[in-house]
Design brief:
Layout (H helix, E strand, L loop, with lengths): L17 H15 L5 E4 L15 E3 L6 H11 L4 E7 H7 L1 H10 L4 E6 L29 H4 L5 H5 L7 E6 L3 H19 L5 E6 L3 H4 L3 H15 L3 E5 L11
Parallel strand pairs: 1-2, 1-3, 3-4, 4-6, 5-6
Antiparallel strand pairs: 5-7
C-alpha cells in the first residue's frame, strides 16, 4: 500500500526538524486513512520542498499567502482535507494578516506551524519569533526587545479569538515530545475531518545551520531556551465561550 511519505531522500540540513515533522505528519495522515483526499499547501521557505516528499496533491503559493490559498481550496472542495505547512517567517511575518483572519473566520483547515526562530531558507535573518539576545544575520548584536520587540507568541494570540477550535504548541526535542507532537497533529487533522473548524499546531524545531550549533546542542537550545518564551501546551481545545453583547 502506498504511504504518504515517499522514498525521496530529504535534502534538509543535518539536525533540521523538518525531517522528523514530515514523518509524523505523514504517519498521522496514513493512520487516519485520508492520504488520497488530502491537499497540502507548502509556501515559500524551507517548507517549499514539501511536495518532493509527500504523496498528496500539493500547491505552492506566494510567500505568506498559504492560509488564503488553503481557504479557497477548502471552500471549493469541502470534502478534501487541507493542511498548511508554514515556517515562522512565512506565517508570522509576511503572512500574519492572512493567519489572523483565517483563524478569526474559523476556516476548517489544519495549520502546521514550524517555529525555529529564524528565516532558515534565506540565510538566518531575524524572524518575528527570534529570541531576545539571539544573534542573526540581521541582528548581529542580538535581538534587542526595546528596538525590535519581543518574540511573537502566535498560539497565545490566536487563542483569544473565538473561532479556532484547537491551538497547541509542541516540540520534537525527545522521543516523548515527538509522540506528543504527532498526537497533536493527528487531533488537528481529525477535528478537520469532523468539520469542527480551524486548528493550528506550532512545533518548536531546531535549525542547527543558522543557529551555528551542532544538532545535539540545537536540540538542547530548543528545550532550554525556546521553551522559556514559547511554553508547550494546549491553548485551545474546543470553541471559546461566546459572551453575550451588552444591551444599551
Amino acid at each position: 500500500m502506498e504511504t504518504t511519505l515517499n522514498s525521496t531522500p530529504f535534502s534538509y540540513c543535518a539536525g533540521c526538524g523538518h525531517s522528523v515533522i514530515h514523518r509524523i505528519l505523514a504517519e498521522a495522515l496514513d493512520e487516519l486513512g485520508i492520504r488520497e483526499k488530502t491537499i497540502g499547501v507548502f509556501p515559500v521557505g524551507c517548507s517549499v520542498a514539501g511536495p518532493n516528499y509527500f504523496n498528496v496533491d500539493s500547491i505552492v503559493p506566494a510567500h505568506g499567502r498559504a492560509p488564503a490559498v488553503a481557504t479557497g481550496v477548502k471552500r471549493m472542495q469541502p470534502d478534501k482535507i487541507v493542511f498548511v505547512y508554514q515556517g515562522d517567517g512565512d506565517l508570522a511575518s509576511i503572512g500574519l494578516a492572512e493567519t489572523i483572519h483565517t483563524a478569526n473566520r474559523g476556516e476548517n483547515i489544519t495549520v502546521i506551524f514550524i517555529n525555529n526562530a529564524t528565516f532558515g531558507m534565506t540565510g538566518g535573518q531575524a524572524a518575528p519569533t527570534t529570541l531576545p539576545e539571539q544573534k542573526t544575520t540581521t541582528s548581529p548584536e542580538g535581538r534587542n526587545p526595546e528596538v525590535e520587540g519581543y518574540p511573537l507568541p502566535v498560539c497565545e494570540m490566536l487563542s483569544v479569538l473565538r473561532n479556532p477550535i484547537y491551538i497547541a504548541r509542541v516540540a520534537i526535542t525527545s522521543p516523548k515530545e515527538i509522540l506528543k507532537a504527532k498526537a497533536a497533529i493527528k487531533k488537528a487533522l481529525r477535528y478537520q475531518m469532523e468539520s469542527r473548524g480551524y486548528s493550528l499546531v506550532e512545533v518548536l524545531s531546531p535549525c542547527p545551520t543558522n543557529w551555528h550549533l551542532s544538532p545535539q546542542n540545537s536540540r538542547d537550545w530548543t528545550e532550554k531556551e525556546m521553551a522559556k518564551y514559547f511554553p508547550l501546551g494546549v491553548f485551545r481545545d474546543g470553541p471559546a465561550r461566546k459572551k453575550p453583547c451588552k444591551k444599551n
